[in-house]
Backbone:
């Protein structure tokens, strides 16, 4: 009985930690899904731009000895700009029906960003400050990381902000219009390129926050984080349903919990295989994700 | 001058104008610091050698050593092999000096001729002197391969022996490692854990039936049992592993991992208020990168290393290399020492250094290098076991004290 | 000479890797699974020559068959997934394969030495060529015999009805199926053919580098595999060859002296190339110009 209770506590704790951590995946997933929803394209440079934002945030805070909240603010600002840049260089001028070229261009962007980070930092891991780093609450047998809670909270705030912009502003309405039916949107006088570049910028903003969040959650920044975060983000986006924001959120939290759970019970060697397995199950039985959209973009 | 020239017998060939070597390492990619540091170390050492007169060739003349290039292998197997073949077939370099990444060495050594003199083996015949490549089992791949690398078995053996006396209140231990990096994982399971057991520390991790003091004993069982307290080198979430280790409440925690994931794990330990009496790390993390990543979370960790600025030579080399834009640590200090190793080997035999004598020179150099059993390193003598080809070098134990690496014990003193 | 032959071999292997993605890309399917098939081919051929002491030719052919068969199995579920979800599915598949090999341990003792894949330590000493005294020239001829065969096969496909069918599916699936083309058969065949080719090149690669581990078979390799045909253009097999020569020959090797600027340059070049020539270097426009020039 004691063993069972002990295991139950451990499993609950593991799942809880996974959910909190999953908020970083959720934000990256939202970014991917926003762009997919708007243009039907995948921006492979997204996670790299997010991490690059975190680097710039870190650099600024180091040079100016600024408070930690500045790191998040600078990250978000820089990544917003990166989002705009990636749109202009990888998506703007490529014909909309050419998925291969746009994807390849964003892969080029990924290589570029990765190598610039390495070039500037010699690839060394860098300490990343976290707000409430020392906050750790113990409630009975459970431990709760204060800094992860804060990161989760920032995730919620960002999502609410995003949803507000999307559903309560004209800009958001334009974005949704272009996502639904871009020809009709054009006929209504909406400038597609302007709207898309703003969508990318908004996604970039979220990415910067996600990058800073992930770095804060781990406590270190390193160029090795870009590719795994890209893959995780893509998996979360697909499981959540391409184009669905609530899907990305739920999928992100779920994948975070799922992978942590399988790490606990099956160990590190099999953990990622289970995540891949989860994706395959969704692709076979529910290919449009948790929240399938009726509009099935190809 | 003319008289001297005329007095040389007709049949003698005069030596080439320099002793050429070519180096390579990771100058791009996440391990860029390896290449930058090793290049700075190599070039600085060569400059020192030349300032002191250079290298003595087969005809008695002193010529400068020349680093004809330091290429970027990006710690990728195919690139290193391409550079190796380029060096062997298109340059006059007598030896290839690279790299640091052990997986790459494994591939590089595989394209070399396995046993010298084996005419049925069409492998490349050029000596390679690597500046680290720590991993068990590399020495036997080829007769033409040499590494300047500490012997991890000896280092950890002596480390735990010393810890017994220096930290008498440390009795139990546990640990974790990154499993997708060959060197980290095998050193952890085959060497570090076993050596701790050998010196009487009690493993309080998950039950392992066969754990014992012999190297590699119970390795498989340890891997299987401790699976959920390991991580991958790029992981971002260490909560599960840290909780496992916290529950075990060990006096000593081993963190066998390269800087990024070692820092990730140690930071998580700090968050969860896990304060073991002692932390022990993997050799590769005794570097500036660890301090960059988690100076305060790493406080107190002890790691054996092949370099620390404790002797006058070491201090001098350290300042020269810093001026050249690199750091001296266990990886790059080996590159410095290798330059001197090359000089020593060349002067033990008669190298002519001319294009026509190239293959002959390489063979003689290989034989000379293989015959060296002892060589002055920066903090003591480098040694090599002639029969197994395994290298060994002096080491010290360093600890992060107030955010800096300090030497806490020098076993040779 | 050795160095140039090695470079020619690398170009050959990467060309085959690129061509393994070529056919499926023509049908409009973006698959990053080639790294997985390449890995399977590498390990299969290496296990056969090292552990079972097979001759290189049957080993490499067996590698081809195993990868091709795997591609066939993967093709059915994978190709029911639409568009960009296939990208994610194939990335996940490649990662799964990589994790499989990172766990694979198959050690055999021979002559007092342990050989074979050793989990995360990788698979060392795949020394068939040097153990059997092959000269570098012999290796190059051997390897390129396969490359030319594959290029010939793809050339034939492009010129024949097969190529037309592939391009039709790539152009407009609805129209293609309404003229009676079975989309599933076409896509799965393209994927299977890609698997064969990737497995073959993987088997040869294993013997060129003599040592394998999971680090070699990441998603990065998969992106290179599709980069070559996308950059080179999907109308002509020589586009892929030129792209490989440019990237592996000029950028990676020729510009080695600029160190990490190579990858920075590569990233910039890809972005520029996709903006100015989104259908690849040897797209229909360029091919028409070349054809006119040749005729004159």
Residues:
């Amino acid at each position: 009985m004691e063993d069972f209770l002990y295991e139950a506590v451990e499993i609950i704790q593991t799942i809880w930690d996974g959910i909190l951590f999953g908020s970083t995946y959720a934000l990256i997933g939202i970014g991917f899904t926003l762009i997919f929803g708007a243009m039907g394209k995948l921006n492979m440079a997204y996670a790299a731009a997010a991490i690059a934002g975190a680097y710039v945030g870190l650099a600024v805070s180091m040079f100016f000895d600024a408070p930690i909240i500045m790191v998040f603010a600078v990250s978000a600002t820089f990544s917003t700009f990166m989002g705009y840049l990636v749109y202009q260089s990888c998506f703007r001028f490529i014909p909309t029906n050419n998925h291969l070229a746009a994807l390849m261009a964003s892969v080029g962007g990924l290589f570029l960003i990765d190598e610039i980070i390495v070039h500037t930092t010699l690839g060394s891991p860098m300490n990343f400050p976290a707000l409430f780093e020392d906050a750790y609450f113990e409630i009975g047998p459970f431990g709760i990381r204060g800094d992860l809670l804060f990161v989760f909270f920032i995730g919620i705030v960002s999502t609410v902000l995003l949803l507000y912009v999307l559903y309560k502003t004209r800009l958001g309405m334009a974005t949704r219009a272009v996502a639904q039916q871009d020809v009709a949107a054009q006929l209504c006088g909406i400038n597609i390129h302007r709207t898309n570049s703003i969508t990318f910028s908004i996604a970039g903003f979220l990415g910067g926050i996600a990058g800073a969040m992930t770095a804060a959650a781990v406590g270190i920044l390193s160029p090795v984080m870009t590719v795994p975060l890209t893959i995780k983000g893509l998996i979360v986006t697909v499981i959540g349903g391409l184009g669905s924001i609530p899907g990305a959120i739920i999928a992100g939290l779920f994948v975070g919990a799922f992978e942590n759970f399988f790490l606990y019970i099956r160990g590190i060697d099999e953990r990622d295989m289970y995540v891949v397995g989860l994706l395959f199950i969704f692709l076979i039985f529910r290919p449009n994700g948790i929240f399938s959209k009726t509009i099935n973009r190809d | 001058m003319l008289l001297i020239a005329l007095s040389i017998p007709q049949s003698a060939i005069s030596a080439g104008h320099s002793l050429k070597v070519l180096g390579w390492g990771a100058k791009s990619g996440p391990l860029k610091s390896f290449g930058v540091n090793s290049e700075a170390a190599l070039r600085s050492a060569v400059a020192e050698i030349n300032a002191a007169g250079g290298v003595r060739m087969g005809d008695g003349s002193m010529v400068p050593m020349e680093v004809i290039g330091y290429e970027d292998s990006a710690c990728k197997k195919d690139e290193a092999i391409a550079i190796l073949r380029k060096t062997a077939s298109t340059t006059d370099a007598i030896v290839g000096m690279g790299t640091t990444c052990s997986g790459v060495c494994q591939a590089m050594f595989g394209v070399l001729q396995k046993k010298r003199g084996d005419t049925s083996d069409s492998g490349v015949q050029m000596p390679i002197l690597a500046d680290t490549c720590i991993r068990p089992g590399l020495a036997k791949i080829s007769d033409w391969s040499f590494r300047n690398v500490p012997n991890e078995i000896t280092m950890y053996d002596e480390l735990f022996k010393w810890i017994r006396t220096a930290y008498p209140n440390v009795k139990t231990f546990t640990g974790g490692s990154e499993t997708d990096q060959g060197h980290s994982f095998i050193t952890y399971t085959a060497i570090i854990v076993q050596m701790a057991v050998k010196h009487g520390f009690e493993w309080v991790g998950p039950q392992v039936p066969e754990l014992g003091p012999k190297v590699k004993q119970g390795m498989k069982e340890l891997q299987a049992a401790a699976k959920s307290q390991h991580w991958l080198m790029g992981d971002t979430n260490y909560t599960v592993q840290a909780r496992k280790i916290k529950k075990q409440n060990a006096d000593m925690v081993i963190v066998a991992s390269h800087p990024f994931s070692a820092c990730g794990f140690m930071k998580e330990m700090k968050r969860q208020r896990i304060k073991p009496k002692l932390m022990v790390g993997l050799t590769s993390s005794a570097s500036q990168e660890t301090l960059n990543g988690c100076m305060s979370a790493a406080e107190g960790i002890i790691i054996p290393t092949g370099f620390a600025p404790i002797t006058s030579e070491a201090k001098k080399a350290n300042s020269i290399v810093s001026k050249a834009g690199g750091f001296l640590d266990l990886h790059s200090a080996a590159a410095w020492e290798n330059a001197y190793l090359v000089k020593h080997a060349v002067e033990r035999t008669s190298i002519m250094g001319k294009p026509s004598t190239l293959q002959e020179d390489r063979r003689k150099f290989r034989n000379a290098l293989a015959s060296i059993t002892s060589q002055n390193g920066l903090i003591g003598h480098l040694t090599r076991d002639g029969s197994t080809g395994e290298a060994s070098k002096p080491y010290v134990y360093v600890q992060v004290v107030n955010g800096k690496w300090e030497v806490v014990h020098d076993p040779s003193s | 000479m050795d160095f140039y032959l090695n470079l020619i071999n690398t170009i050959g292997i990467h060309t085959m890797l690129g061509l393994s993605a070529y056919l499926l890309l023509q049908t409009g399917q973006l698959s990053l699974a080639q790294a997985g098939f390449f890995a399977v081919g590498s390990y299969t051929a290496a296990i056969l020559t090292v552990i079972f002491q097979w001759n290189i030719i049957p080993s490499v052919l067996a590698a081809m068959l195993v990868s091709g068969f795997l591609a066939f199995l993967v093709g059915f579920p994978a190709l029911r997934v639409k568009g960009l979800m296939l990208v994610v599915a194939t990335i996940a598949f490649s990662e799964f394969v990589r994790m499989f090999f990172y766990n694979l341990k198959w050690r055999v003792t021979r002559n007092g030495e342990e050989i074979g894949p050793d989990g995360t330590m990788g698979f060392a000493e795949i020394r068939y060529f040097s153990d059997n005294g092959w000269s570098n020239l012999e290796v190059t001829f051997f390897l390129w015999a396969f490359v030319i065969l594959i290029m010939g096969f793809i050339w034939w496909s492009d010129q024949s009805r097969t190529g037309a069918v592939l391009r039709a599916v790539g152009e407009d699936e609805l129209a293609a199926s309404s003229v009676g083309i079975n989309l599933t058969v076409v896509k799965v065949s393209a994927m299977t053919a890609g698997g064969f080719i990737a497995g073959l090149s993987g088997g040869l690669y294993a013997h060129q580098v003599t040592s394998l581990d999971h680090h070699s078979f990441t998603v990065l390799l998969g992106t290179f595999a599709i980069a070559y045909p996308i950059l080179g253009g999907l109308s002509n097999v020589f586009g892929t060859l030129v792209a490989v020569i440019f990237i592996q020959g000029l950028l990676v090797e020729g510009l080695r002296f600029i160190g990490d600027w190579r990858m920075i340059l590569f990233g910039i070049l890809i972005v520029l190339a996709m903006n100015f020539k989104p259908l690849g270097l040897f797209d229909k426009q360029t091919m028409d110009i070349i054809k006119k020039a040749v005729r004159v």
